[in-house]
Structure formats: structure tokens, C-alpha cells
Amino acid sequence: MTTIEAAVEHKHRDDVGSRMGLWLFLFSELILFGGMFIIYAVYRFKHPDEFRLAAAELDTFVGTINTLILLTSSLTVAMAITAIQHGKKYLSMALVSTTILLALIFLVNKYFEWSHKISIGIYPQSPTLVNKPSGEILYFGLYYVMTGLHAVHVIVGMAVLAFSLVFLSKGIIHQTSFVKLEAGALYWHLVDIIWIFLFPLFYLIH
To answer: Are residues 175 and 87 in contact, defined by beta-carbon separation less than 8 angstroms?
Structure first.
């Protein structure tokens, strides 16, 4: 093989730089949600009883099921990385597909949960909610904003994992080049970690 051929065959991959860029992005996401958690803490300190009363309106069972779903999805995406590291392409694809399916189930559960709240008049600026104490209004305002923003991140995570699935099928992600899948998995782990904080804040403060 000539020097020119070797240069053409060799493709430079700055995996370290890619990972560093991803970590910086994830850090900015943590700052975003961190600010919201601080706002939540301040208002909860000011209205502890009203926050507990409002939390009783949420279904802890549904929140628990969604938590288990996301924890399982983190496991499957981590297993997908291990599978591709061992050259098991189709197993990795199946595990990524399972992760996306679990994310979809999470969103469906969240849709029905929100639909129920809206059907009984608990949504921002609703006649029912505006007549409640200010602490309850703040609680549900934060609930819709923070869980809604999290749902957006779930959708983005699904899209990222879908691209990873396409890259796996085309062989772009393979046994010796899987940084793209790692990036998608790290983003998905962030989505799960955010929910791990949201779940007790909104569902377990009775």
C-alpha cells in the first residue's frame, strides 16, 4: 500500500474532542435544569404546605412506573454500547430500538397523565387552578414547565438514538468506532438523571 493510499484509507477521528464537546453541552443542560431546581426549592420553602397539598393531586404510581421505564432504558442503551464493542451489531441495534420503544412508552404515559390533569381543570390559567392558593398555582406551573421541558429532551433523545440506529445499520457505527453511539447514550443518561430529580420533587413530597 502506498503512502497516499494509506492516507486516504486512514480517517482521522477526534474522539477525545467529540467527547469533550458533548460533556460541555451536557454541562450546559445541567445548568438549565439546575436553575429550575433552585427556583423550585425557593418556592417550596415559601409554600411547603401548599406544595404538599398540590403534590397529592399527582399519581405516584404513574410516576414510579415512568421512573422504572427510564431506568430500564438507561440499562438497554448501555448494553447496546457493550454489544457493539463485542462486534454484535444486530444485538446492539435491538437494544437501541428497545430504548427508543421505552422512551415512547414514557411519553404515552406522560400524555395520559397530562390529559387527566387538563380534563379536571388543572392546567396553567385554568379557572380551577387560578382559584387555588398561590403555592399550588406555583407548584403546577413548575410541574408543567419542568416536566414539559423534560419531555422535549426525551423526544430529542429519541431522535438522536434513531440516528444512531441508522448509523449502526449502515456500519458507520461499528466495533472500533462507536463514539456516536456513546454520545447518544450519554445524552440519554442525562435525560434519565433529570427525571430522577423530578420524580421525588413532584411526586414524593406528600
So the answer is: yes
Collapsing DSSP to helix, strand or coil, 131 comes out as: coil
> Burial, 1: exposed, middle or buried (Cβ in 10 Å; 0-12, 13-18, 19+)?
exposed
Stretch (H or E) spanning 199 = helix 179-203
Radius of gyration of the chain (CA): 21
Angle at 206 between CA 126 and CA 60, to 5 degrees: 75
3-class secondary structure, 10? coil
Per the listing, cell 379536571 goes with 120
Give the number of other Cβ atoms within 10 Å of residue 122's Cβ: 20
Q: What is the pLDDT of residues 4-41, one digit of tens each?
A: 444 434 444 555 555 666 667 677 787 888 899 999 99
